[in-house]
Design a protein that fits this description.
There is one protein chain. This protein has 96 residues and is an all-alpha fold. The protein is 74% helix and 0% strand. The protein is built from 6 helices and no strands. The longest helix has 17 residues. The two termini are 18 Å apart. The mean pLDDT is 94.
Length: 96
């Protein structure tokens, strides 16, 4: 996949605004459902649309690569199989 030129902070802020969570929350280890959903959609977008590797995402957010892979896979499945999540992803993509 071709890597796009992008400002990661703009994407982070946009996703946080969409889900109404703070940037600090996304970087935190909180398991709050709303924050986790924002975090996982952010990782999915960075990986799928901007070509960031799982290892790059794991390093930036202080996670282990295995968990990043797991959550990106879950969002990929949800976007493909759940209309609501597909609409969320479509709206997020249109923001950037």
């Amino acid at each position: 996949m071709e890597e796009k030129n992008f400002d990661i902070k703009d994407i982070e802020v946009g996703v946080c605004d969409f889900f109404e969570v703070s940037l600090e929350d996304v970087y935190s280890r909180t398991k709050n459902r709303k924050v986790s959903c924002a975090r996982h959609f952010l990782w999915f977008i960075l990986h799928e649309d901007y070509g960031m590797s799982n290892a790059q995402i794991a390093k930036r957010y202080g996670r282990i690569k295995r968990r990043v892979v797991e959550y990106i896979s879950k969002i990929r499945f949800r976007v493909a199989n759940q209309r609501g999540d597909a609409l969320v992803y479509k709206e997020l993509k249109e923001m950037f």
